[in-house]
Predict the structure.
Amino acid sequence: MENITDDMIQNLSPWNDGIKPGDITKTVKESACEQAYQVSPRYLNAAGRLFGGDLLSWIDLTGALAAKRHCNMPVSTVAIDNIHFAKPLHIGDIAILISNVTHVGNSTMEVRVNSYVEDLATGHRSLVNTAYLVYVALKDEKPSRVPRLIPETDIEKREWFAGEKRNEIRKSRRKEGI
């Protein structure tokens, strides 16, 4: 796999992603989602921190909402990968989860979910977790074509190319039975 270069970013156009005349397209910001959760005692593990499984559930819900906004139909989670926990959340903390569609296939969408802890007094947010998830769009319980994604900013374009690489890695893992 090649490295993402500035030249690649500058030359990315929607047509490079297989967009044909008449295809439905959406930008990243059209399906972005932000949700807030307060950590209460019911979410704590024995160490007094947010149980990782609850955070994963929130991540999946927030990611699915961005995917549903993108395709306007039900979705099902296909994969959760590249999860990194940077810091714990504690009782009373406000978790802010932000999801964006980063890459699309024919019927699948990759979504990045960043989780933050927000200081309500200052509004400052600190990154807690980053995860990438893959969803499949379902129409009548069958995979269905999703709108093409138009990355507009350099960050969105870099994320799109990185999504291509992550998709190649996922395909390789499936092929190897991993």
